[in-house]
Design a protein that fits this description.
Radius of gyration: 20 Å
Shape: globular
Amino acid sequence: MSPSLHAQSSGPIRLVVPYAPGGPIDVTARALAERVRDSLGTVVVDNKAGAGGNIGADAVAKAAPDGLTIGIAATATHAVNPWLYSRMPYDAAKDFTGITQMVRVPNVLVVNAARAEQLKINTVADLIAYARANPAKLNYGSGGNGSAGHLAGEMFKQKAGIYALHIPYRGASPAQLALMAGEVDFNIDNLAAAAPNIRAGKLKALAVTSEQASPMLPGVPPLSATFPGFAIDTWWGLMAPAGTPKAAIDRLNKAFTDALKAPETKTRFEALLAEPVPTTPEQFNAFMAAERAKYQQVVKASGAKVD
């Protein structure tokens, strides 16, 4: 019996998305679920939001390792939350096995365009010089304590040797509105969220936080040009419960990496400013381990904790 017939006869695959419907993670998961139908049969997307993604990830950790339940592993669920939450329902290092990374979305250091003009801040060097000349005057916003924007902001402050007060908001959208209103001086936001206001000239992009410059923001340098090795991206990928047979992982990897390499996927993801990143299961496991190690330092230095 061919693998695809076997998959269809043993029931549909459930893909757990640990976030609410409609966001970029959900949209990309649904796009791939459609594309793999011919090779894997029906893939049903199951949104289980809550606790920063921990509820959905835990549902995958506790599922039978039969290749019929898979889920999304994201920066939060598999690199940040293990250090941020005092109690975790799963072990991010041991309870899962990677299938493939799906995407990478650069984050971007943005300032209010009008304020940047007023303070003559056109580059990262200008921002750092202003912070040093005006100690304790700068602040930055984020989508909350322990959010990607908060941790990237702390990492930037450490590397630059500057002080800026962190102001947490209830989500990335309110933080962006605060920046537009001039309540905060800078944010490190994901590119997908910030791009419309960068294009509209309301926000000025000073740098991207990916290791290399992003083709989606031509002319904007990476922070790694100022601080070698600086890299904080938003990423997500596919994982299965630990103990899922290698044959099942390999079959899932082939179907999903083929879907990620399809030109239609690239076009569809580009609209979300997300870059497809097909990998082997081993590469994704190694990547997640490296990200966990990196964020352990960053979360500790930030002092962020969720009880």
